[in-house]
Amino acid sequence: MKRSYMHKIVFMGLIISTQLAFGQLDAPKVEAVYGGLINDIAGIPLSVDTSRIFIATESANSLFYADIYSNTTSPVYGAFSVVPGVDAAAGYGSGIQKIAAHESSGLVFFLHNNTIYSADPNTGAVTSVVPGMNIPALEILDDRMLFVDGTDLHFGDLSPAGVGTPHVDSPIASMIT
Fold first, then answer.
1. pLDDT tens digits for range 133-166
2. Contact 100, 109 (CB under 8 A)
């Protein structure tokens, strides 16, 4: 009886190892990823039925955007386009790790080499907004921009044109040492 169980276990082991060996002989499947890996995603509403999605990727064309229309029973997704001014010729590359979008202006803000920039997807204008020494975080909530430089929290208002004005109490120094 012991011998019968041993044969069954060996037979099952052979079947499983054969399945694993054959499973690894297939060629890897290449996924259709537009622009490489996605580092960050941000979105803003453009109207009551349209939103714009921005993505930062690990590619020479650093920032992309697409519009999504939802005025029908199923959403209609527009094709992704490179944000002009932040394309391969601009040299930002895969260094953009954090983005934030501003609804009122339609601008996308991004971090590159410890500087905050804004880009206009309609005109291609790219502007240096805030140079910093160590900016690891950036966020936009309504018309308020917040970012961390070193251990200080900076914040201020953004105009409808996307121009920032620091708050009088900004920055707030961190209590963490």
1. 788 889 999 999 999 988 889 999 999 999 988 8
2. yes
- Residue 10 belongs to a domain: no
CATH number at residue 62: 2.130.10.10
Which residues, at least 6 apart from 145, have a Cβ–Cβ distance to it below 8 Å? 100, 102, 109, 138, 139, 155, 156, 157, 158, 164
**Entry pTM:** 0.76
Tell me whether residue 122 is in a domain.
Answer: yes
Contact 66, 79 (CB under 8 A): yes
- Amino acid occupying residue 122: N
pLDDT in tens, 92-141: 877 888 999 999 999 999 999 889 999 999 999 999 998 877 888 899 99
**Count, residues in the chain:** 177
**DSSP state letter for 27:** P
How far, CA to CA in Å, does 99 sit from each of 44, 59, 80, 116, 177?
A: 12, 15, 16, 9, 27
Q: Which of 113, 115, 114 is nearest to 127 (CA)?
A: 115
Identity at 74, one-letter amino acid code = S
Q: Is 29 helix (H, G, I), strand (E, B) or coil?
A: coil
- Give residue 128's domain range: 38-173
- The total domain count for the chain is 1
106, with CB counted inside 10 A (0-12, 13-18, 19+), is middle
CA 59 to chain centre: 12
